Amino acid sequence: MKKLLVAALSMWSISTYARDNRIVIGTVDSIYSTILKQPRKIWVHMPDTSGNFLYGQKRYPVVFLLDGEAFFYAAAGTTQFLSTNTQVCPEMILVGINSGDRMHDLTPWHDTTVPKDSNLVRSSGGGEQFTAFLEKELIPYIDANYPTAPYRMLVGHSLGGLLVLNTLIKHTELFNSYVAIDPATYWAGQKLLEQAGPVLQQKNFINKSLYVGLSGTLPADTDSLMMDKTLATVAERSDIQFDALVNGSVNNGLQYRRKYFEQENHNSVPFPAMYDALHFLFDFMPMPAMKRDTVTTAAYMSHYKMISQKMGYTLLPPEDEINGMGYYFLQKKMFEKAFSFFQMNIDNYPESYNVYDSMSDLYVAENNKEKAIAYLEKELALKDAPYIREKLARMKGDK
């Protein structure tokens, strides 16, 4: 294992049941931060397919979740369900970052609008230091120790949402997409609004996405609300002002959506907002609807070329999905179509032994033992396993 800034690496299961009847959704890892001068625990959820050794090793986008101990379970379930059951979003690694002193970590500025000795804000203003921890320590550690793809998302709620917006404005290239849920845009006398306005007007946000989810409803009379200068409405006014800044910066390339959840409060909104954010951020993911028998390899390649352009790195049609399509056509004795899908996998994943096993099965179905044996031999060259040798010996014995 690579030595980065790691003093300790510990793994133990996060589970909903004790002892032998466990449902494991992740592991606990830890990293010592020289920037923060303290160890930090992180909770990591890996996609189900990460443990499937039949296919080649996949690499996954990464979601960095602030206040991980509060939202890890909900976020893990949401990303897992939407990626595997509906293909709304790609399979992703989820990294929940546990809060140390969240008032320090998640506020980019010390709040001088309240008494300096207030326990509420005494430690505030460490957001830039915490962001440096993300950029220089945590992200490199995750990339070095997990099968990551070059796409990152940052998700935060309340003060975490404030840090998400500050990161978008000041450290734009650090993440591909940003999800701010009920962000504390009012913090420190609305300093975020003061700094975000010019940046949103002048900076290039091409290929960057921002989703803002808010609890409650947009007031019908926004004019009266904006005239109210009391603390009771500062949060709502700040959200409206930030939205106006984003919408007023029409040529910066930022992909943006804001949504109110009228039945949710500040504490309940993260769950539905995360669900909706994934639909927005990855609205290009699902394959166009078509009858299964009419699907072609060309359609897959075209679709994943478009996805690659959106994600900013090359994504190939999933090996397991294409393999399943090949066997679907094989079972229907549509041999040419089965061949096209199996060959696509061989072209895309030439180091995967299973792609040659599948093509061998096709030639067995076509009673072409010579070619079936040739592909089994290619499989054996990649994986010298007893069951492959036995399968090959039986087939050679039948020649």
Could you explain the architecture of this structure?
The protein has 399 residues and is an alpha/beta fold. It has helices at residues 68-84, 102-105, 127-145, 159-170, 187-202, 222-227, 234-247, 270-281, 297-311, 319-331, 335-348, 353-365, 369-382, 386-397, and strands at residues 13-15, 24-33, 38-45, 60-66, 93-97, 148-157, 177-181, 209-215, 255-261. The protein folds into two domains: 13-281, Rossmann fold (3-Layer(aba) Sandwich); 294-397, Alpha Horseshoe (Serine Threonine Protein Phosphatase 5, Tetratricopeptide repeat), CATH 1.25.40.10. Strands 1-2-3-5-4-6-7-8-9 form a nine-stranded mixed β-sheet, with helices on both faces. α10 runs antiparallel to α11 (335-348).
Strand and helix map with partners:
Elements: E1 13-15, E2 24-33, E3 38-45, E4 60-66, H1 68-84, E5 93-97, H2 102-105, H3 127-145, E6 148-157, H4 159-170, E7 177-181, H5 187-202, E8 209-215, H6 222-227, H7 234-247, E9 255-261, H8 270-281, H9 297-311, H10 319-331, H11 335-348, H12 353-365, H13 369-382, H14 386-397
Parallel strand pairs: 4-5, 4-6, 6-7, 7-8, 8-9
Antiparallel strand pairs: 1-2, 2-3, 3-5
Helix pairs in contact: 1-8, 4-5, 5-7, 10-11, 10-12, 11-12, 12-13, 13-14
Structural class computed from helices and strand pairing: alpha/beta
CATH-defined architecture of the largest domain: 3-Layer(aba) Sandwich
Quaternary structure state of the chains depicted = single chain
* Residues in helices, as a percent range: 40-55%
State the strand order across the main sheet.
1-2-3-5-4-6-7-8-9
- Apparent shape: elongated
CATH class of the largest domain equals Alpha Beta
In DSSP terms (H or I, runs of 4 or more residues), the helix count works out at 14
Tally the structural domains: 2
Kindly state the number of beta strands.
Answer: 9
CATH-assigned fold name of the largest domain: Rossmann fold
